[in-house]
Amino acid sequence: MPNSDFKVILYLFWMALLVSALQLARFLLQDPSELTTLTHAQLQQDLQQLEQELLSYSAFGTLNPELKQQLATQRAVVEQRYPKQLSRFQLSAEVAKMVALLDDPGSSVGNWRTAARLPATLQPMDQHWLALNDAERPLDAKLPFITHIDGVPMSRWESAAKAFLPSNASPQQLAQLLSHTYLLRQQIGLPDAANVRLTLSDLQHDQRSILKPLSPARLAQQLPMSRWRLLSPEVQLLQTNDLDLFENNRQLRLDLQKAQRAATLVIDLRHANGLSNALTLQLAKSHVRPSSQPSGFGRYKRHPKLRSDTLAAYGYQPLSQFTLFPALKVVLLQAEQPKLSEFFARPPLLTPKQTPEESQQQLLLLIGPDCRLECEWLAHAAANWPNTLLLGTDTSGDYGRRYTFRLPASNLNVTISASLAYDHYGNLLSGKGTQVDIDVADSKNVNWPMLLEALRQYQQQSVAP
User: Fold this and answer.
1) With CB atoms counted within 10 Å of each terminal CB, which end of the chain scores lower, N or C?
2) CA distance linking residue 101 with residue 98, whole number of Å
3) What whole-number distance in Å separates Cα of residue 104 and Cα of residue 430?
């Protein structure tokens, strides 16, 4: 009998040991993206990797001689703030703030801003904020401005939001971040809650507070899109968010050629991305003169893992293929920097062998901070074209080649710009957006007839004596 009891005890012991081993294996093999809590050691592991990657690959980092010290200081602050553990959401927020030190408009940190949001759309107006509903109308027509959230002045919310943005971020980008209530409450030190109190005002004497539930997180997944619309018999509208569609879609290019016969062509590029310059080249045929000189330049952050053709997919060619003007050679020679590669060139939009096309068409480009990569180059070139107006809001200056890496403990993906862009004179473009001719508030639902009427009045005023 005692021998039987001993066997039972031994069996239970081995079972307990096996269960413990399985639990330990599950923890060790768990997908990092499923971790909700990270240890201090995991925090240190991720921040060390982040710091190393930013210093090794960020082209914007070469513009900031203080970056290494800034990253080290920020890292020490974060490690001291979380001596034991932190949530994955908290880590992603701290990572975003360190990446913001680059002032890189092309940087991003995974898809981490997914918590509940502000139940209103904020729109900048002068130095204040309009509070709009989903139909883009004021929550209260008599009190259209928002002055406080949860009793805290908007200036304090702005300060918290700016810690996650490049220093040159647009008001539209700030408005987007201000909607992330859960995130900013953590930064300000406010408790989490299912509701939020909004203080509305007319900025004079009247105001009132309303309590509203937070809105569910919106996971915006943009599908490639290009569609045509006839605004009037003589006005064609093209809305596109993917410039790469013009590279392989012959019918789209033929439709564009037909649309260029209209009196006015409007192209909505507010959310356009991509690497193809097919649209730019087609539009340039009737707007630029032939040239033998490059239309722009670029160079990348030197690293043993990056090859000399690393910018080829972004439209750059070796500088040796061009005969530069002597003055331009001097400018590029003086701009040499050991941390950056040699310069590469973007070909001219129209070469001396090509014949420009005659056109009196009015071209209107609607742009904004989400006009990126090749869209940035199109906006930059079009700013000097005849019969062309840029509408909307200024772009962000996002021209750079993407470099993405993953943090080992949290599995967060971080994207930064590994290259810088320069205009045809050799002046830095990256981080410096293209300015619009006419400000048009960023809106999901553009009132096209009203916009065209305002444009007609603008043109009449421009030609008036």
Assistant:
1) C
2) 5
3) 8
Residue 205 has pLDDT above 90, yes or no: no
Can you tell me which residue has the tokens 């809001």?
A: 393
Mean pLDDT across the chain, nearest whole number?
Answer: 89
**Tokens describing residue 383:** 């700013």
Angle at 351 between CA 328 and CA 280, to 5 degrees: 95
pLDDT tens string 316-375: 999 999 999 999 999 999 999 999 999 999 999 999 999 888 888 999 999 999 999 999
> Phi-psi category of 392—alpha, beta or left, where left has phi over 0 and alpha has psi -120 to 50?
left
Q: Which residue has the tokens 């959401």?
A: 89
Model confidence band, residue 35 (pLDDT cutoffs 50, 70, 90): low
The full 3-state SS of the chain, as one line of letters, equals CHHHHHHHHHHHHHHHHHHHHHHHHHHHHCCHHHCCEEEHHHHHHHHHHHHHHHHHHCCHHHHCCCHHHHHHHHHHHHHHHCCCEEEHHHHHHHHHHHHHCCCCCCCEECCCCCCCECCCEEEEECCEEEEECCCCCECCCCCCEEEEECCEEHHHHHHHHHCCCCCCCCHHHHHHHHCCHHHHHHHHCCCCCCEEEEEEECCCCCEEEEEEECECCCCCCCCCCEEEEEEECCEEEEEECECCHHHHCHHHHHHHHHHCCCCEEEEECCCCECCCCHHHHHHHCCCCCCCCCCCEEEEEECCCCCCCCCCHHHCCEEHHHCCCCHHHHHHHHHCCCCCECCCEEECCCCCCCCCCCCCCCEEEEEECCCCCCHHHHHHHHHCCCCCEEEEECCCCCCCCCEEEEECCCCCCEEEEECEEEECCCCCECCCCCCCCCEECCCCCCCCHHHHHHHHHHHHHHHHCC
- Whether the CB-CB separation of 412 and 92 falls below 8 Å is answered with yes
Q: How far apart are CA 149 and CA 321, in angstroms?
A: 57
Decide if 298 contacts 399 (C-beta within 8 A): yes
Packed helices 67-81 and 40-57: angle between N→C axes, nearest 10 degrees: 170
Tokens of 217: 């997180």
8 Å CB contact between 197 and 149: yes
Please give the average per-residue pLDDT across 77-87, as a whole number.
94
